[in-house]
Amino acid sequence: MNDPIKFVPKRDIRVDWQLIADMIEPGSRVLDVGCDDGQLLAHLAETKNVEGRGLELSQHGVNICVANGLSVVQGNADTDLVYYPDDSFDYAILSKTLQTTHQPHVVLEQLLRIGRRAIVSFPNFAYWRCRTYLAFQGRMPMTNSLDIPWYETPNIHFCTLTDFTALCEEMDVKIEQSVIVKASGKVMTRSTYGAFANFFGSDCIFMLSKKD
Amino acid sequence: MSISPPHSDNQTVILGRETPLKLDCGVTLDAISMAYCTYGTLNADKSNAILICHALTGDQFAASRQPVTGKNGWWEMMIGPGKVLDTDRYFIVCSNVLGGCMGTTGPGDIDPKTSKPYGLNFPIITIGDMVRAQAMLQDHLGIKSWFSVIGGSMGGMQTLQWASAYPERVFSAIPIACAARHSAQNIAFHEVGRQAVMADPNWQGGDYYASDKRPTAGLAVARMAAHVTYLSEAALHRKFGRNLQDRDNLTYGFDADFQVESYLRYQGINFVDRFDANSYLYITRAMDYFDLVEDHGGSLASAFEGTKTRFCIVSFTSDWLFPTSENKEIVHALIAAAANVSFVEVETDKGHDAFLLDTPEMFKTIDGFLQSSAKSRGLIA
């Protein structure tokens, strides 16, 4: 064990991770809910000097994180966020995990309680490829980013961009920033593209805060 | 492998001559002996010291030959040059607990008031007392704060107690397979063990030291019962199944027909050679009394309020003595206290004993945690 376990980042950082990193102030306190094997946390620690913590459901992911020196605990976004104190983080991140939770709206509430800001990314189910897949093949959509068949996918609560903004309105949550990503990785803004964003965007990233 | 760094075989120091040890039960011990072993070299600013807390029947010989049994240290897999507890980098200290029987003051030692062994006149001790005594050793060694305190089972309890009672003296803490309070089931098992000892006529009310008899039969039964709780159903099945011991047929008697019986008898018989029955009573009692929740007004989080210590909790899937759920209670409390905490549940069928065995996932976890802690302590670049 003389050689420290080397962290090998994937060659290209996931597009949504880069966009999330762009939203984060250097040196802040970050909780990554559903942090997987810790790539985003490691990226944020390296590029933004954040004090990072993680919560991850899969034992495999947690073990990789801790072996790499990240502060991560095994736990469930649906049940374990209640243990975190109010406003204990600058950002609570939920990247591509919202759609896997049992009660997405409760998880959102918890994120906004724990973090001064919440950053949430999710796949847009109204993306045109999903729409045409369902319309013409009559089967549950599978795309490049949604590549697991319906019977195996952990995604149980899909939503669309419009669904999500409606939920934010219903929950009286302030949308501080939103970034819509096309499958090509190109970024659109909701203000310029309006309803088109819900058609052409494959992935969405929101930064949210509580309204005063 | 490099050449072994300095390691000191058993040393004993007298502690508390000036400031006696006040026990939770109200009694004061004027001076205590503390036996310990060290491995590796203490650096100039004394920032690389790791305290290992041993479990119920462990001792200070974590990585050296046990003088009674002649066997290797109980955690040699973890300690040594290039190992997880790297003696090229860290100064490792392991002391025998208060109440023990390998050199630290315990019920088998001479009571200065009577000039006879304490026996049951030894005061009841707690995990808090054990840690207070270890803190005296820390002072004696001139170490302001441990780089890490680590231990499994009762060692994990001591680790939690350390982090709670002396947060400024503990930079990082690794409680393994433990709980913040001893469960009813665990108290029950301990009571079975104690009753087995006390039912042995050779126990003589605990005053057996002057006689040539020892309550070995009772202590062996206590050990056998306890040993089952350290394993798992799956591990017992994998190791022994219903295999017969050196025979082809059942004997229709009460010999150890089955391998599992023979194994347990062996565990029991070997144990009594190296362990004092009264120590077993006192130390199991200390574990039973451990309740960090009650000590903090019913809120475990307040035991760790404002802590700067970094924590790494490890549990094992097949451990039914200190199951993951109890380890998670600690994790949740630490999260509520906004502490820096990592938690890994290791998949294994080896039961509670997994922390003493070759468990690579545990090694990797602790190694990663220690390396990142060492970076933040400035021990490695």
Automatic annotation (TrEMBL), chain A:
Family annotation (SUPFAM superfamilies): S-adenosyl-L-methionine-dependent methyltransferases (SSF53335)
Record-linked Gene3D superfamilies: Vaccinia Virus protein VP39
Pfam families, sorted: MetW
Coiled coil: none
Superkingdom of source: Bacteria
NCBIfam families for the chain: metW
Protein name: Methionine biosynthesis protein MetW
Organism, scientific name: Sneathiella chungangensis
TrEMBL record, chain B:
Catalytic activity: L-homoserine + acetyl-CoA = O-acetyl-L-homoserine + CoA
Listed EC numbers: 2.3.1.31
Chief localisation class: cytoplasm
Sequence positions that bind substrate: 223, 353
One Gene Ontology MF term: homoserine O-acetyltransferase activity
Function: Transfers an acetyl group from acetyl-CoA to L-homoserine, forming acetyl-L-homoserine.
Protein name: Homoserine O-acetyltransferase
Localization in the cell: Cytoplasm
Keywords: Acyltransferase, Amino-acid biosynthesis, Cytoplasm, Methionine biosynthesis, Transferase
A Gene Ontology biological process term: methionine biosynthetic process
GO cellular component, one term: cytoplasm
